[in-house]
């Protein structure tokens, strides 16, 4: 039995895209055309699918976009040269480097090479630093897309986290760490536990959490019998596992579908945080263009 109400990321992202379409046309009337660049290294099917989705979204809202798809044999220096080109390209008002990068590439050095004013992912150290220092008033600088998407998804469903105990499972730089910072801001005022592979008794944390954000990338690790009844559960992690019936790869989230019978709200996967991640990327691109149109 499914009791949980659905945090519908697909429908919410569609509404955000409608709002952005109007903002983009207002910018275009003022002679400003927002343009997204994507840098994709290698041939990971998941990354290719996400990047393709980002370009489809751009076309939908009127943002121009360019792709730089590169072989996984590229060197650090060659990749940095591509970023230097994008930093200098006036038509690219914002860009992202799709993660993960191959192991021989120094990811932190790459993120640092992005012009912070063109950082559409909010992952440049300057922009992450603003998040840590809590100095990015709304729209001053980009926020990382997935954490921002999670907050926006909850806000637009009128789900308040004030005073709630949130368990974030996963301490990665694109989700867990920045999400902990966002949720502990005074405007949200949640209490956050960041669980990770070194966490001793995850089951104990799970059983006590009012809100669970699962971003570990371990299929169905969050089970109904472990979750506090009435908890709010967001499924962010994704794995590609072979479907035994068809033999084809299938997307599987971190949350067992049976959790829907005990949770009060559930953000499914697919259809939850993924589309919101893409909507927040578009938001970052539009806001950067609006800042530059305002001369900031
Ligand atoms: N540079 C970045 N790299 C990565 C990020 C990021 O924010 N910036 N996050 C993730 C992947 N990601 C964005 O790039 C992403 C994940 C999921 C989706 C999405 O729309 N998922 C759909 C299903 C899509 C499908 O069927 O393939 C859904 O959940 O409904 C978009 C973007 C890691 N890398």
UniProtKB/TrEMBL annotation:
EC no.? 1.5.1.5, 3.5.4.9
Ranges of residues in domain Tetrahydrofolate dehydrogenase/cyclohydrolase catalytic: 7-121
- Domain Tetrahydrofolate dehydrogenase/cyclohydrolase NAD(P)-binding: where? 144-292
What UniProt keywords apply to this chain's record, in alphabetical order?
Amino-acid biosynthesis, Histidine biosynthesis, Hydrolase, Methionine biosynthesis, Multifunctional enzyme, NADP, One-carbon metabolism, Oxidoreductase, Purine biosynthesis
What does it catalyze? (6R)-5,10-methylene-5,6,7,8-tetrahydrofolate + NADP(+) = (6R)-5,10-methenyltetrahydrofolate + NADPH; (6R)-5,10-methenyltetrahydrofolate + H2O = (6R)-10-formyltetrahydrofolate + H(+)
Per the record, the pathway is: One-carbon metabolism; tetrahydrofolate interconversion
On assembly, the entry states: Homodimer.
Q: What is this protein called?
A: Bifunctional protein FolD
Instruction: Please tell me the species this chain comes from.
Output: Arthrobacter bussei
